Amino acid sequence: MGYLFSIETLRLNNNGFVGELPSQLKNCRNLILFDLAENKLSGSIPEWLGASLRNLTILILQSNHFYGSIPPQLCHLTRIQLLDLSMNNISGTIPECLNSFTNLTQKGSSSQTIQHSFLVNLQGRFSEMLSYDDEASLIWKGLRAEFKSNLGLLKSIDLSSNKLIGEIPSEITYLLGLISLNLSRNQLTGQIPSRIGNLQELESLDLLRNQINGKIPTSLSLIASLGKLNLSENNLFGKIPTGTQLQSFDFAYDGNRLLCGAPLPRTCPEEEKGPRQSVLVNQDGQDGLIMQGYYISMGLGFAVGFWRVCGTLLLNKSCRYTYFNFLTFLNDWLHVKAAIICQRMLNR
């Protein structure tokens, strides 16, 4: 099989193949579709898949026994538009070089189908150009579906049901043409990338059963095309962003006990405190007015008392004489008392 240099489609799905992928297949450099789904193949994912088969547009390794990490060489598949590594034993982190998938960074597609043409000799004298359309069987929005007439429009990454760890790389938000992203049933941590809203073509996002934490990015509410969302069984918290789509997914948030807001029955603490906070604000305003009135009245009282005494001394002549005579007598008495005390101390 390694000598089929011109082969463009190789579908070996739904067989009982075991063992590792033979390295001779790296000679099939014209492969566009490579489907090995639902076998019993094992070993690590070969590096030559990305290093040698640069024309791959569709790679399906779903439902096998592959293990080890995702080789970074897969990022050389710049033409890839459908990558399915789901239901294996793949571990490690998601490569950060996903933005190298040039075909996935572009919106739309040049063709609705993936078509192949080939020349056939008839009776050794005539030749005729024939063509066929590729087809593939995939799990789409939770259900198995067949794609043929619209396979060229499908842009999808499915890494679900593995043992992947680490964070979702932010580079995934550069795949602007992505229609479906499935990272469910792994051990991913960290937060949902804040720029997830850049994926405006996204119709399906499944992050079920991971260990993702943090708040749901507000940008997620901006994806108008989103028709399927599953964030269940993670460690998300905070208020669900308000958006037409996000409030329509009734079961997308189950198992996140610290999430709140519609469509969940749990109201957020800030919503509960909203009216109470306004009352406290009013009360603070009233306290401020009371304190202001207190200081004003104290100042007025001091001014009135001061001018009442001083005014009496200035305007009433007899009171003024009496007051100053009292001050003179008090001064003389203090001097005499001080002199007597000093004399007694000297006699001792």
Largest sheet: 8 strands, parallel
Report the β-strand fraction as a percent range: 15-25%
Helix content: 10-25%
CATH topology of the largest domain: the name is: Leucine-rich repeat, LRR (right-handed beta-alpha superhelix)
Number of helices: 4
CATH evolutionary superfamily of the largest domain: Ribonuclease Inhibitor
Give the tally of structural domains. 3
- What is the gyration radius calculated from CA atoms? 41 Å
Under CATH at level 1, the class of the largest domain stands as Alpha Beta
Oligomer: single chain
Describe the structure.
A hairpin with a 2-residue loop joins strand 11 and strand 12. Residues about 275-285 have low confidence and may be disordered. The protein has an eight-stranded parallel sheet with strand order 1-3-5-7-13-15-17-19, with no helix packed on it. Strands 2-4-6-8-14-16 form a six-stranded parallel sheet, with no helix packed on it. It has helices at about 50, 100-105, 270-315, 315-345, and strands at about 10, 20, 35, 40-45, 60, 65-70, 80-85, 90, 115-120, 125-135, 135-140, 145, 155-160, 165, 180, 185-190, 205, 215, 230, 235-240, 260. By secondary structure, it is α/β, with parallel strands linked by helices. About 25% of the residues lie in helices and about 25% in strands. It has three domains: about 10-270, Alpha-Beta Horseshoe (Leucine-rich repeat, LRR (right-handed beta-alpha superhelix)), CATH 3.80.10.10; about 270-315; about 320-348. This is Putative LRR receptor-like serine/threonine-protein kinase. It is found in: Membrane. Belongs to the RLP family.
